[in-house]
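Students often ask what a holo structure prediction actually looks like on paper. The answer is less mysterious than it sounds. You provide the chain, you provide the ligand, and the output is a string of discrete structure tokens encoding the 3D arrangement of the protein together with tryptophan.
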Amino acid sequence: MATQNRENFGGRLAVILAMAGSAIGLGNIWRFPYMVGEHGGAVFVIIYVVCTLLVSLPVFIAEVMIGRRSHTNALDAFARLSRQHPFWKGVGYLSILIPLLIASYYSVIGGWSLDYFFKSCTLTFMRTPPESVSDLFGTFVSSPWAPVLTHLAFLGVSVLVVAGGVKSGIEKFSKITLPVLFALILVILTYSISLPGAGEGVRYLLYPDWSQLTPRTFAYALGQSFYSLSLGMGCIITYGSYVSRKENIVATSAGTALSDLLFAILAGFAIMPAVFAAGIEPGAGPGLIFQSIPFVFAKMGVELPVISAVASILFFLAIIVAAMTSCISLIEVGVAFLVERVHMTRRGACWALFLACGSLGVLCSLSSPVFDFLDWLCSNILLLLMALLAVLFVGFVLPRRVPLDEFTSRGHCPANGRIFPLVYFLIKWVAPIAVVIIFFTNFIL
Ligand code: TRP
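The corresponding structure tokens follow.
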């Protein structure tokens, strides 16, 4: 049976790193800052933090529980735990399909990062006057071939890593890159804050302007928080299924969620000051980091050319790898399903997914309305819906003793038992009610 010969992650740190590898990615570096810019700055940040702690963290724990309890891919997880109930089987299918939609446009942005990595290697930012460095982005995305090729290259490499298997591929990859990324974002943050005019950006992130608050802000903040933690899409369920029975899943979930949150905030403080210093509109949309960060490097290049060159190369390399660990987790969901359910070989499954996501991604790359629609549909509708179903599943379908048993790792972590009633309450009532209210206000108001 598939359950017996499944691989497991190697230990606590490995679990946190792999899950954080899935969570920390373009969502933090690319999406979070532009969402903050489009939805009112500090107000968005505050709501985002509250949503993460009260709603997303309980959802995260619920998904890890589903994965570890069932020890199988996301589709079979729902089916097995609900004793083959047809509705939950359907939910399982959705949680296999949707990550592939995300992977398609996600790898388009991965491709943009790849191009910016090449640009750093050829010292393009330093050779361009700082005032016009943000225009490079428009020129790049409007060219027909370059974004398509970089998208396919990015997706191809991600798929190759997935083909390497969970332990040798995914785990090793995440272990090296996350610490590097943390260090680099701190370097950029320090420089970005010191730029003339940057103070405005720091203020924008710290002082809320409550007049910017609308019902939509909640929907976008919650959607962003789910997106950033890789929730609602079978990713965390699938990774949860590789966690050993004795592991303390409360500690690993909290560790992952907090490092993801910290990372998003750091990215915000690295990017917003640069946006203001460069005179870019904070609500400029998906191109925001590709316009503001090169400005930092162009400016830095005037005073410190060597440091600027090295930092820009390392920075885009780190983004690529962070994006790749997330993209890998999206693809792994489909691969686990195709291997265990359709009995394809791991390699065949990887090829199939490369073709499917590659073609859809080409469409997104060529048409920004398709891109925007997919991003909106996935993160503002499907993620909320799927996360809602996951918490309802744990709260109402599974008998209470199952989450309790998972929460304490079958008695291995008895101390967790004390906070179980609180977390169970958040999972059963607070998270679903919050998601439903936010979902509907988004449409009605
Ligand atoms: N969380 C990742 C990021 O922040 C993206 C991601 C990976 C994702 N897996 C996901 C988003 C599943 C939604 C659902 O970049």
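The CA atoms of residues 75 and 92 lie 4 Å apart.
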